[in-house]
Amino acid sequence: MTAVFDSIPTTAITQVKLYLSSWDVAVKVVSKRKTKHGDYRKTVSGAHQITINKGSNPYRFLITLIHELAHFVAFQEFGYRIQPHGKEWKMTFQKLMLPLINPTVFPESLLAVLALHFKNPKASSDTDFKLVMELSKFDPVTDKTYVFELEEGTFFSIPDGREFKLGKKRVKRFECEEISTRKKYIFSPHAEVTEMKKRS
Fold first, then answer.
1. Does one domain contain both 93 and 19?
2. Arithmetic mean of pLDDT over the chain
3. How far apart are CA 177 and CA 110, in angstroms?
């Protein structure tokens, strides 16, 4: 569990230790995955396991950990027939986060955003634009740019090397064209990309 405690704010360690000592669930820190920050599953042997992406943002790590722990606790209390992100999970997530949403754990700038988010927590924190942007302030400095910061027509690349041209905004997301295939893709406004130089 050392990797877990090294990844969260030090002021949250006591509460997290209390949670993890109360339930028989293993938590592993794994290499970063593109499609998710963490997950919970019950293995074929019946063991309970949570995996969290290794990261340098302790606040995102903590929220993800409690998100996944809430899955485990909700299933234990209400059974496995409940919806994964239904009312039982939301109530459990709120309950587990409540002791942690205070100025000793989170910066003041995050508290107001978290308080609003946890009135009705979403299946993924990535769908809460304000929360994503506030959390990003505590990420390491990189050369990445958010899609919403680019002007229409800008070229950009994503981590797998593919290149795109930014199109028009469609409600909340942006329609972009992949350069090599001319296929259309939809991007979240807070997707991190690398801006490219203008093409001739």
1. yes
2. 90
3. 34
